[in-house]
Write a structure and sequence with these properties.
It contains 18 helices and 21 strands. By secondary structure, it is α/β, with parallel strands linked by helices. The strands form five sheets. Strands 1, 2, 3, 9, 10, 11, 12, 13, 15 and 18 form a ten-stranded mixed sheet that branches. Strands 8-7-21-20 form a four-stranded mixed sheet. It has a three-stranded mixed sheet with strand order 14-16-17. β20 and β21 form a beta hairpin. α1 crosses α9, α3 packs across α9 and α6 packs parallel to α8. The longest helix is centred in the middle third of the chain and has 22 residues.
């Protein structure tokens, strides 16, 4: 047993102790009924698993699975060394560059969809990127699904909801993608189900999980322990709790439908000891992502974590350095799903256009750093080195012309060389990059009959048909 495996085994043993002796509180009678029917000891609404029981169910989850886009080039594989970045999730506000907050319109939401659609680094789109003003919060999940479906061809991230909302969402999804069996055969969607640390799983989360599992769709557990407030201040204790909070939820899904695609997930970090608030962009958060990815391999599960996380209130040096370390930790450890891979600010309280575009750039830098360069006769360029000798230059050589657009990463918003207006240069280049992406965006073509049926389903659930008609034109 090597050193790393020994550490993971220690975490495993602690997690099994928590699952068996503390148990998971499920705030839904149907969840408890399912657990009891599969021989799990439940006292009230708390379920206690033995190690043998929990591992039996965990092993029914697939090591690798695929979610499908409207176009096959956007299909996403989860597991192994595959890495899939995704948009931010759950921000209540848009943050302007001066730090002011404002609510997001439907057009803002669609514009964010367009930016992620136009960026080829992302095969996933949608979800609660930001709350939409003017839409009943209880119907926000349906509104976001509709706006994403009408403006994206990529794998769809969705939001959660109560039973009525989730039933309508699945009905619309079956109408969109060929019926119940076709949707199960080629799953299209995933969401986050949140654990309330420590060791609680809420009513709406249970309804979302059970509905998605029955429909064959995927989910990831959002464990968001804050070391020192909702989990032990020591990272060892917090990482053990990551496993302990994931496993009962994953087991429940496998009881509903064995083989349900799931990801072991962590959004955990530390709490700021001065204020007690979340420190999402911390080095400790990056370490939690690292261990989540390695524990996923240890258990044979796909992984989800992190992103370009920051506690900064605006796009500034703090936002950039925190986003770089948290996103790098995910990429270096082959995190299969990286939610919040662009755009999030202020400990998940805001999203901004500038931050989305800055994180697109951060991602470019990370991918270039991790991409090995070729070593062969042509790339070693000895012929040109001999030719240039001591007094020549390489700038105008044929070899440079051949490789100048492939070897170096060309930044979209970062500046190099002489700049006449350094104070405003970043904002100017950011706005130009945004304009290029929006200009590149192409709206999907959708069968009018299929769209009308989806509108009927959502109108019956309470979503305004006039609002959907307006979104169609964006």
């Amino acid at each position: 047993m090597n050193y790393t495996t020994k550490r993971l085994q220690q975490i495993h043993e602690a997690a099994m102790h928590i699952i068996e002796n503390v148990g998971m509180k499920f705030h839904h009678p149907r969840a408890i009924e399912i657990l009891k029917s599969n021989g799990i000891r439940c006292e009230g609404d708390v379920a206690y698993f033995t190690e043998e029981q929990i591992l039996y169910w965990i092993r029914k989850a697939p090591f690798c699975f695929t979610l499908y886009g409207e176009e096959s080039r956007y299909d996403c594989s989860f597991g192994g060394t595959e890495i899939n970045p995704a948009p931010p999730y759950g921000a209540p506000f848009i943050v302007e560059q001066d730090g002011k907050r404002r609510p997001a319109s439907a057009k803002d939401y669609v514009d964010f969809i367009k930016l992620f659609e136009a960026n080829d680094d992302y095969k996933i789109n949608g979800g609660p990127i930001v709350a939409i003003e003017g839409v009943d919060p209880s119907l926000g999940t349906l509104a976001m699904w509709y706006a994403t479906y009408t403006h994206s061809n990529k794998v769809m991230m969705i939001h959660t909801g109560d039973q009525k909302v989730m039933d309508s969402l699945i009905e619309a999804s079956e109408a969109a993608w060929g019926g119940k069996e076709a949707l199960r055969e080629k799953p299209r969607m995933f969401t986050i189900v949140d654990v309330n640390s420590p060791m609680q799983f809420g009513k709406h989360m249970c309804e979302t999980l059970i509905t998605l599992a029955e429909a064959g769709q995927a989910f990831t557990v959002a464990n968001c322990c804050m070391a020192g407030s909702t989990s032990p201040v020591t990272l060892a204790g917090t990482v053990a709790l990551i496993v302990a909070e994931n496993f009962p939820v994953i087991a429940l899904a496998q009881m509903v439908r064995p083989g349900t695609p799931v990801l072991l997930g962590s959004q955990s970090c530390t709490a700021d000891m001065a204020s007690g608030q979340i420190a999402g962009g911390s080095s400790e958060g990056a370490l939690c992502y690292k261990y989540c990815a390695n524990l996923s391999d240890f258990y044979g599960l796909p992984s989800r974590g992190g992103g370009a996380i920051t506690d900064s209130k605006i796009v500034d040096p703090q936002a950039t350095l925190e986003s770089m370390i948290t996103l790098m930790a995910c990429y270096e450890n082959n995190m299969n799903l990286i939610i919040h891979a662009a755009g999030i600010l202020d400990g998940y309280n805001g999203v901004s256009y500038e931050k989305v575009l800055a994180d697109f750039e951060v991602l470019n830098y990370i991918k270039r750093y991790l991409r090995e360069f070729d070593i062969n006769e042509d790339t070693l360029a000895l012929e040109y080195v001999e030719e240039v000798g001591h007094t020549g230059e390489y700038l105008t050589s044929e070899h440079t012309f051949e490789y100048c657009r492939a070897e170096p990463m060309i930044p979209h918003i970062c500046s190099r060389g002489v700049v006449k207006d350094p104070v405003n240069r970043f904002q100017e280049r950011t706005e130009a990059y945004k304009a290029r992406l929006l200009n590149k965006y192409q709206k999907p073509e959708i069968d009018p009959e299929k769209l009308a049926k989806i509108k009927d389903i959502f109108e019956a659930a309470g979503l305004s048909r006039a609002w959907m008609d307006e979104v169609d034109q964006m």
